[in-house]
Amino acid sequence: MTSSDDRPIADAPAPDGRPLTILIGADTFAPDINGAARFAERLAAGLVQRGHDVHVSSPNTAYRRSAPHTEVIEGEPMTMHRLPAVRWLPHDWLRFIWPWRSKHYARQVLDAVQPDVVHIQSHIVIGRGLARIARERGIPVIATNHVMAENILDHTTMPAWVDRIVLKLAWDDAKRTFDMARAVTTPTRKAADFLERTIDIDGVVPISCGIDRRNYSPVIGPRERNRIIFVGRLTAEKHVDVVLKALTKLDPALDVHFDIVGGGDQRKNLEHLATELGVQDRVTFHGRVSDDELRELYSRASVFTIASIAELQSIATMEAMASALPVVGANAVALPHLVHDGENGYLFEPGDVDDLADKLTRVLTASPEEYERMQQASLDGVAVHDINRTLDTFEALYRDEKLPA
């Protein structure tokens, strides 16, 4: 609804305790496999478990629109509004709707859903359209940022000078979109500080993506074999090549194996690099695996390693911590929020192969007592990221209530 001077007036929040109708706008969602999609799926499923009517607007896997239908995501039924999407050819799975159609689809979805609140997961396309039309209609908008615009440029084929212009335009548009939201969130305080500095906004709320620790099987104690594990998309910003190079610098007597879990456009390049480095017999590319297989891989690993310099949180790191793994991570962006140097693992200088090899060696040669101490520190550290705390906080934002302490 609007006032007489045409400014939107936000509808009153739903009374405390009444189930809400919530529309989640996500530019990436199942069957995509990445941190942003996984968060949106777990959020939606958790809200369904709490009795809310959850709808999700996301790209379809083909250029056709699907009628609203029920899909079971993370074991919970929710209403999906799949929009016609095209494949971004430089990327191995990314699909998007045409930007000039985003507001048209937003109107149609909002007409069908009539939500109490809209929660967008990015400012890119679907979220951009939903934010603008919801604001026109006086529907409260909550915006969560999982995106570093710089990462998008990894998948372009444009000259560097064009990328710089696109980057500025992307962040300028992000500010315009986030200015329409009642609240802006991002997974960590460091990520919130980054966003506030980058687009000059205030009051970004840090809310962990959260995980359900009951889904993991921590095993305290030394492993039978030294195994490094990485879980995530095999894309340029993950810098898995740094880990492969560090593997060559480890003492051969440690007999270290490296498990790489996930798919992505860099897989073939990384396979070739492993061969060039002569470590192909000590590296296994598992590709995408089931949840049960992933839990098993975590349970047998000795240490989780992540060399990424673009993590706004890292769900995979939290999963590893919930599996009682020490972590060796790059000292960049939000990873220091999870990896406390000398406590549950070590931080290394981003891109420094020798430093990474040294920190991995410290974990792999730790005494049983020291290794178990790091394992317990991971379990203790991940406790604050429980999914129920995340859901409590988002429910308070949806209802415009005081946030839980």
UniProtKB/TrEMBL annotation:
Top-level taxon of the source organism: Bacteria
UniProt-listed PANTHER family: SULFOQUINOVOSYL TRANSFERASE SQD2 (PTHR45947:SF3)
Keywords tagged on the record: Glycosyltransferase, Transferase
One MF annotation (Gene Ontology) recorded for this entry: glycosyltransferase activity
Residue ranges annotated for the Glycosyltransferase subfamily 4-like N-terminal domain, each copy included: 33-213
InterPro entries: Glyco_trans_1 (IPR001296), Glyco_trans_4-like_N (IPR028098), Glycosyltransferase_grp1 (IPR050194)
Coiled coil ranges: none
Protein's UniProt keywords contain Glycosyltransferase: yes
Source species of the chain: Microbacterium istanbulense
Keyword match Secreted: no
Name under which the protein is recorded: D-inositol 3-phosphate glycosyltransferase
Residue ranges constituting the Glycosyl transferase family domain according to the UniProt record: 223-377
Annotated Pfam families: Glyco_transf_4, Glycos_transf_1
